[in-house]
């Protein structure tokens, strides 16, 4: 059986898009039985250090990414 991994999660570092702190997201993912989570905040990588530390604390693996919009 394949595991599900959410590949587009935005934290409060995505201005006006996400409301949860990376620590909260990692804790909820662990509660739901996820072993991996991808934090992909919009136009910033500001939360990846906190997301990685939180994932490590909960035993999850963190993937970081950033959809960027250029104009």
List the helices and strands and how they pair.
Blueprint: E1 6-9, H1 22-31, E2 36-40, H2 48-58, E3 61-65
Helix pairs in contact: 1-2
Structural summary, described in words:
With 71 residues, the protein is of the alpha/beta class. The protein starts with 5 loop residues before the first strand and ends in a 6-residue tail after the last strand. It has two helices and three strands; from the N terminus they run βαβαβ. Helix 1 (22-31) packs parallel to helix 2 (48-58). The model has no long low-confidence stretch (mean pLDDT 91). It is globular.
Provide the descriptors you would attach to this structure in a database record.
71 residues; alpha/beta; 3-stranded parallel β-sheet; 2 helices
What ranges have pLDDT less than 50 throughout 5 or more consecutive residues? none
Report the sheet-strand fraction: 15-25%
Q: Find the count of extended strands (DSSP E, 2+ residues).
A: 3
Helix-and-strand structural type: alpha/beta
Radius of gyration: 12 Å
The quaternary organization reads as single chain
Overall average pLDDT: 91
Alpha-carbon distance between the two ends: 42 Å
Strand line-up in the sheet with most strands: 1-2-3
Indicate the overall shape. Answer: globular
Largest sheet: 3 strands, parallel
* Total count of helical runs of at least 4 residues: 2
Order of helices and strands: EHEHE
